[in-house]
From TrEMBL:
DNA-dependent RNA polymerase (RNAP) catalyzes the transcription of DNA into RNA using the four ribonucleoside triphosphates as substrates. Forms part of the jaw domain. GO terms for molecular function: DNA binding; DNA-directed RNA polymerase activity. This is DNA-directed RNA polymerase subunit Rpo1C. It is an enzyme of class 2 (transferase). It catalyses: RNA(n) + a ribonucleoside 5'-triphosphate = RNA(n+1) + diphosphate. GO terms for biological process: DNA-templated transcription. It comes from the Archaea. Residues 111-468 form the RNA polymerase Rpb1 domain. Keywords: Cytoplasm, DNA-binding, DNA-directed RNA polymerase, Nucleotidyltransferase, Transcription, Transferase.
Length: 523
């Protein structure tokens, strides 16, 4: 039986003793625990009916809020309805085209190649299951050797050799794949460390690479050091006109995505003696951002809740802002009650940080392309905001990508986050010139996402929630784990690698997974 750590923590948060929480969480989720009767609780915990009824009452109270709490919640909802918050958009589901998706997955495989078709038909006839990408790799290998055509015996030999190599590469039952994975990633990681020091000082792209990026991934950092996005666009816009091949249309979307602050479109002058701030709008920057002076004035007025004076009502180029002046009538009393120097500095700081257009966290958005094959443009960003970017009209949500794994998990789910971990680790290792079998990366990603959330490989994640007491204590905070296990009477079944090494007995993996007995014949 395995204790569910999340269930145990929830029970302890409700004020239930750790000993009883441990017994109730034994191989039970919270949904299973909360429906237990007081009699079942008494039987599981070995306590009297009065104590069991008290525990049952505590759990029942946590699942059913009181009438007073419900009324308070309703009151809060009413107040929120009056606020000016935007309503959350529910985006329509995009139509799923299986053929287009398969074409996208196999974009690097030439499925029309004559040798590809020959090997594919032969593998089906021999009842050997090879994926399209495997067959594509075989075709590339054949073509690289200068062979333009395969005879049937040679093609059969290729398929048989492939199947033999594939069978020998499979993990045997009870093989310690975790240790193999750790060694296979740890050794190249050491090389990556040396290369990081060797290439120190060389000007590179401002994206976290190498060992620091691997550490970010396995530590499950909430926000990477340099978050980036690749935003792809749909082929046609809502009016049926070309979109992703139209540079002007792509530039317009990029300007809408990129965060625009006051410093991006104006020069700020603080008039200390006159106690006001002047904004000299930069026309070329306004044009590039797709904004007008009147629009800037309106947004500043609504954000600051102040009266904005302009040199021209229709096409303003200079805006004047005075602290404390909320309407034009307040200008008359300004001579008697001038704003303070502190208020002026606070207003300047607020104006500099004000976001006038674009999405929060997306600092830059640059248009890349066109592609040689399709003539397509795409947008690369510094900063990431996957949920908000997906709301833009014309954005192809099926191809848009971010290196922020936490955002992917929150917006697309745990399966997408698992695939992102594989992609990011694979790209990072390949970028450093290191080769690691993809199956080792699959093992790491499966461990990190096996419980429905992206967990770090550390004492706050995978290592800290192991079921073995000795494995947990061998990692960090040894005394704490041993004391807690002793207080609640926890047992260690010694099923893993670490705990068996500690007690000095063979690990139940590989050759240690079987027992061999010799029974001599009776003579």
């Amino acid at each position: 039986m395995v204790v569910k750590s999340a269930t145990k923590k929830k029970l302890m948060d409700l004020g239930i003793a750790e000993e009883y929480s441990h017994k109730l969480a034994d191989d039970r989720k919270w949904d299973d625990v909360k429906i237990l009767t007081s009699g079942q609780i008494a039987q599981i915990c070995g306590i009297d009916s009065g104590s069991a009824q008290e525990i049952h009452r505590v759990m029942e109270t946590s699942t059913k809020p009181s009438r007073a709490a419900a009324q308070a919640e309703k009151t809060i909802v009413r107040r929120r309805a009056v606020s000016r918050r935007r309503k959350k958009k529910s985006l329509p589901l995009q139509d799923y085209d299986p053929d287009a998706k398969m074409k996208q997955i196999l974009r690097d495989v030439d499925t029309d190649d004559e040798i590809y078709q020959q090997l594919r038909e032969l593998s089906i006839g021999m009842n050997i299951n090879l994926t399209p990408r495997m067959i594509g790799d075989l075709v590339d290998g054949v073509r690289a050797r200068g062979i333009k055509k395969l005879t049937k015996p040679k093609a059969r030999k290729v398929i048989e050799s492939t199947w033999s190599a594939l069978s020998s590469a499979r993990a045997d039952p009870h093989e310690a794949v975790g240790i193999t994975t750790a060694q296979s990633i740890g050794e190249p990681g050491t090389q990556m460390t040396m290369r990081t020091f060797h290439y120190a000082g060389v000007a590179t792209v401002n994206v976290t690479q190498g060992l620091p990026r691997v550490i970010e991934i396995v530590d499950a950092r909430k926000v990477p050091k340099t978050p980036t996005m690749l935003i792809y666009l749909e082929e046609l816009d809502s009016k049926g006109k070309p979109l992703n091949t139209n540079e002007k249309a792509v530039l317009k979307i990029a300007a809408g995505v990129e965060m625009t602050t006051t410093l991006d479109i104006a020069k700020i002058d603080v008039e200390i003696t006159q106690r006001h701030i002047s904004l000299h709008l930069i026309v070329s920057n306004l044009r590039r951002k797709g904004m007008t002076g009147a629009e800037v004035r309106d947004k500043l007025s609504r954000a600051l809740r102040l009266h904005i004076q302009a040199d021209n009502e229709d096409r303003p180029k200079v805006l004047k802002i005075i602290p404390g002046v909320t309407k034009e009538e307040d200008l008359a009393s300004l001579a008697n009650d001038p704003p303070t120097y502190t208020a002026l500095l606070q207003l300047e700081d607020k104006i500099k940080k004000l976001r006038l257009k674009g999405l929060p966290d997306v600092v830059r958005a640059n248009v890349q392309g066109p592609s040689r094959e399709t003539g397509e443009y795409y947008i690369s960003t510094i900063g990431s905001n996957l949920a908000k970017v997906s709301e833009f009209a014309g954005v192809d949500r099926s191809r848009t990508y971010t290196n922020n794994i936490t955002e992917i998990n929150g917006y697309l789910g745990i399966e997408a986050a698992r695939q992102a971990i594989i992609n990011e680790m694979s790209d990072t290792l390949e970028g450093a010139g290191l080769e690691v079998d993809i199956r080792h990366l699959l093992t790491v990603s499966d461990v990190m996402t096996s419980e429905g959330a992206v967990r770090a490989i550390g004492r706050h994640g995978v290592s800290g929630t192991k079921h073995s007491i000795l494995a947990r204590s061998a990692f960090e905070v040894t005394v704490t784990h041993l004391l807690q296990a002793g207080v609640i009477g926890e047992r260690d079944e010694l099923r893993g690698v670490t705990e068996n090494i500690i007690v000095g007995q063979p690990v139940a993996l590989g050759t240690g997974s079987v027992d061999l007995f010799y029974i001599p014949e009776n003579v």
